[in-house]
Amino acid sequence: MPTQLEIAMNTMIRIFHQYSCKEEDRFKLSKGELKMLLQRELTDFLLCQKDPQLVDKIMQDLDANKDNEVDFNEFVVMVAALTVACNDYFVEQLKKKGK
Amino acid sequence: MPTQLEIAMNTMIRIFHQYSCKEEDRFKLSKGELKMLLQRELTDFLLCQKDPQLVDKIMQDLDANKDNEVDFNEFVVMVAALTVACNDYFVEQLKKKGK
């Protein structure tokens, strides 16, 4: 019986491959696949971000590779960066409330 | 309605705070809290790893800070590293099967 954290890790792997297999290299996200993944899988989550440019900034960073593809490592770094940003916001709110 | 990826990201935040609030600094994991989190939340997942020393290596890396505490950023880096290792194994198996 997997734990919730293990299910979360499996979800990251599954979602990546669900989009990466659509076209070209099946183990990498093309720009189109990445955009589709962001729009469909991260819409609500990104709404809670204070920085509306966050996704654009991350996409620019990923583009720095200049191969126009995102491998699983880069994808996980992106998810980690977004999660840290959301945690920062959560902690800030908790501290404001004096909890 | 959050997506599965958003739920996965929320799970990482929730699990971290569930353990970090047990003692001392409530926004950081002490060594004891980290060990408890690894033992309770990552046991099954780690069993599928080919490298039995993986967790020890990650803990040593985290210890490099020498403050004996793990903040959320460090925790997410650890989860990301484990997820990449599991994905590598998954992709290797797929390629072996010629899929």
From TrEMBL, chains A, B:
InterPro entries found in the cross-reference section: EF-hand-dom_pair, EF_Hand_1_Ca_BS, EF_hand_dom, S100/CaBP7/8-like_CS, S100_Ca-bd_sub
GO MF entries: calcium ion binding; calcium-dependent protein binding
Domain EF-hand span(s) in chain numbering: 50-85
Keywords: Calcium, Metal-binding, Repeat
Cleaved signal peptide residues: none
Stored Pfam families: S_100
SUPFAM superfamilies: EF-hand (SSF47473)
The name this protein goes by in its record: Protein S100
